[in-house]
Amino acid sequence: DCSVRLVFLRTENRVTWIYKDVALIDALGREHTPFNGTPRIVSLVPSLTELICDLGLTDALVGRTGFCVHPKERLRSVQKIGGTKDVNIEAVRALAPTHLIADIDENRRAQVEDMMRFVPHVVVVHPRTVADNLILYELLGGIFCRLTNAEKLRDEFQLACASLTEVTENHPREAVLYPIWREPWMTVRRDTYIASMLKTAGWDTLPVDAPARYPEFTWDAPWMFSVDRILLPSEPFAFTQKHVAEVSALSGKPVQRIDGEMVSWYGSRAILGMRYLAALRAHDSEGGCNIAF
Question: For the whole model, what pTM was predicted?
Fold first, then answer.
């Protein structure tokens, strides 16, 4: 379900979100207010860095991780401050940011808490469903007073979601395995963003449940019998064509590669991701297997 309740005001010729009376609350339950000064933003998450740029805040971005690579040209001059899980805290301190943007899954809690001691505004997100993207646009658009950009993303998101839903309704649902790592082999549980994105495309991930959100698995697991196909993403583990043959031999199932960024990146990338998945499902119905990425 890609719908979410939004607060809006209908004027003579458009629908506009109201932020004056809307609580801007992040994943830690911390309430934020619109920032009226000149922001200095450090982003610790690749997909959030892309979203910040698409909200028109590239000039406000003063720090990013080495994994924040999109949009490439606009990020060339933005300083790198380490990785998503090994942030150079002193480098962040030196940048004197007004805002730090982090994610519960992507970043280490201890490091984020350390930076909370000197960064005035720390925004932590944790999108777990496709619909959470709309809340994310509202949150960051509201905090940084980028309402027009946020509305544009919302409209594009809803169109992409509607198109994907239409394609999905014309195809049978399939049970899929989506490995995210090799040695040890790991996959995703159904309460993750990746699983939600695949579900929207008509692909239900297995296993149905697991002790961890990103569990290890073996190829002789009982639920493996129910898998219809295996999707090998390009990240976080960079599965290549040679792994297709390996996984096919291990599982005896149809295997195809898939663009991991389009499935796992949220924010503005979710719009491209839904378009990509719609094309992938449509292409599959025509007897195709892979779309180049």
Answer: 0.88
